[in-house]
Amino acid sequence: MKVAKFGGSSVSNAKQIKKVLDIVNEDPERKIIIVSAPGKRSKDDTKTTDLLIRLYEKVLNGLDYQSKKKEIIQRYADIVRELVMDKEILTTIDETLERYISQLYDKPARLYDALLSCGEDFNAQLIASYNNSQGIPTRYVSPKEAGLTVTDLPQQAQIIDSSYEDIYKLRDYNEKLIIPGFFGISKNDYIVTFPRGGSDITGAIIARGVKASLYENFTDVSGIFKANPTIIDKPELIEEITYREMR
Ligand code: ASP
């Protein structure tokens, strides 16, 4: 069994999501998929996670947050429209954001983590539902259902050792599983995020927990360059590289 993780730019729009699902569906061993929040669609775009931080700041400062919330929902509405999916999921997204805001208004650090988790969480639900509608049995599994129990310090989640036993049970599902990256649930039932970029951590934890034969961490680039392209102009592509050389 393989665990595959796809980062933000790989799941930023409908076209990318279709590409990801082609990769996932072509290999029956790719059973567990970890996804990030929708990332940048172009150089000047904003990551959904950063939009969620702005939403949090508006709420915290008692400002009108409706237009920021709409901007976030729009990211998913674009994907839903391009994938020709039922719009119902957008109502759930709106309601979830409002619920976190009203329930955690008095606990800013908890509200921050809860809002940030939405980027990955909504994307995982959407991607699972789409793949299922394409005739491939697929299921969204929340970190809570997956047994991803973490420590309680906001934005600093660390896996609790006993979680690995629960995570192993993910092997019992027959469907392909889509799990949102970047957060777990604490024993006090709070959503707690890993540090930024933490979907990689979720992927690694799940891969270890299910004793996967391989953890694949996909990124959307055209290849490996011989030099850093932000420093060297148009470096050459490396045609072939071993894992050892890559390391
Ligand atoms: N979405 C989160 C971030 O932007 C986590 C991740 O993508 O790995 O940091």
Give the helices and strands, then pairings.
Elements: E1 2-6, H1 14-25, E2 30-35, H2 48-60, H3 66-82, H4 88-104, H5 108-133, E3 138-140, H6 143-146, E4 149-150, H7 163-168, E5 176-180, E6 183-186, E7 191-193, H8 199-209, E8 214-218, E9 224-225, E10 237-238, H9 243-246
Parallel strand pairs: 1-2, 1-8, 2-5, 3-5, 4-6
Antiparallel strand pairs: 6-7, 9-10
Helix pairs in contact: 2-3, 2-5, 3-4, 4-5
Bound molecules: aspartic acid (ASP).
Aspartic acid (ASP) binds at residues 7-8, 36-37, 47, 49, 119-120, 181-182, 196-200.
Account of the 3D structure:
The model has no long low-confidence stretch (mean pLDDT 97). The protein is globular. Helix content is 45%, strand content 15%. It has 247 residues and is α/β, with parallel strands linked by helices. Strands 3-5-2-1-8 form a 5-stranded parallel sheet, sandwiched between helices. A 3-stranded mixed sheet has the order 4-6-7. Strand 6 (183-186) and strand 7 (191-193) form a beta hairpin. Residues 7-8, 36-37, 47, 49, 119-120, 181-182, 196-200 line the site of aspartic acid.
Order of SSEs: EHEHHHHEHEHEEEHEEEH
Q: Please give the order of strands in the largest beta sheet.
A: 3-5-2-1-8
Ends distance:
23 Å
C-alpha-based Rg, rounded: 18 Å
Principal-axes shape call: globular
Class based on secondary structure composition and strand pairing: alpha/beta
Number of strands: 10
Tally of helical runs = 9
Strand content: 5-15%
- Mean of pLDDT: 97
What share of the residues lie within helices?
40-55%
The description of the largest β-sheet is:
5 strands, parallel
Unreliable spans are none
